Amino acid sequence: MDIRAVDLSSTTGRSALHGAAPVTKLLSFAFVLAAVVVQQNLLVIMAIGMALSALAIGSRLRLGLVFGLAAYPGIFAIVFAFAAAPDALTGSLFVAKAMTAALAAVVLICTTPYPQVFAPVQRIVPGVVGDAMLMTYRSLFLLAEKSDRLRIAVRLRSGLARRQPIRAARAAAAALGGLVLYAFDLSQREYDVMRLRGYEGRLRATLPHPLDPRVDAALIVAASALLALAIVFRLAGAGLTPYSWLPTAGALLALLAVVAWRLIRR
């Protein structure tokens, strides 16, 4: 996962979803995740997935990044489905639920900067845990840059890996060990700098106000509607199964409408 691409998407986006309040997006994510968990109808899960896809397209997110990240849990779900699913329909349900839940999480992190995602959590967990979340985020960028430099150095010093695989493996192992030592040294230096600047055991991350309260209200209503739909279809059981194509058809029409709108805007 390229965390730098995710951060660029969350901090430079200018869509309505980017401007919504982080707490609203976290609450909506919780509603959608609950809808995926309680639902056992494949068509309803597909409807939720298409609704999230329409949201991602309408927010002008990089579709390769979004769907690529959402596909990772699907790979493990396929393995689990082959091992535990009694039939193909149940296996498809496992994969669809995993990818839909992952898609909701990816849309959240691609439209909300990392500090804003963990700022509400920081107020609940102990101070050292919340501070570690924020400082780890910064350290990941420094380690990613260091890793890129080491990778280039390994290629230059070991030559072509196909011609000298043993030499390349040794250089890669040495570079990895150096990166681990650099991470320990980086954490110690960051802590020393924070203490010199007056760190007393708590970092505060402020939450921005929503740019348009109507977007926040619409987001909560839409997420609540998805959760209510999932609960109704779960409680009704076989009674609503013949009509489960209706939410899928509605989500498909919404997805096509968003795609057409994006094409017209271009």
Sheet/helix structural class: mainly alpha
The biggest beta sheet, please? none
The average pLDDT score comes to 82
Q: Distance between the terminal alpha carbons, to the nearest Å? A: 29 Å
Strand content: under 5%
Poorly predicted sequence stretches spanning 5 or more consecutive residues: none
Radius of gyration: 22 Å
Helix content: over 70%
User: What is the number of helical segments per DSSP (H or I, 4+ residues)?
Assistant: 10
What is the chain-wise order of helices and strands? HHHHHHHHHH
Number of domains: 2
What is the 3D shape?
Answer: globular
State the total count of DSSP E strands. Answer: 0
List the helices and strands and how they pair.
Layout: H1 3-12, H2 22-38, H3 42-58, H4 63-84, H5 88-111, H6 114-122, H7 127-158, H8 165-196, H9 213-236, H10 245-265
Helix pairs in contact: 2-5, 2-9, 3-5, 3-10, 4-5, 6-7, 7-8
What does this structure look like?
The structure is a single chain. The chain is mostly helical and 266 residues long. The protein folds into 2 domains: 175 residues, no CATH class; 72 residues, no CATH class. 78% of the residues lie in helices and 0% in strands. The protein has 10 helices and no strands. The longest helix has 32 residues. It is globular, with a radius of gyration of 22 Å. The model has no long low-confidence stretch (mean pLDDT 82).
Compact overview of the structure:
The chain has 266 residues and is mainly α. Helix content is 78%, strand content 0%.
Index terms:
single chain; 266 residues; mainly alpha; 2 domains; 10 helices; 78% helix
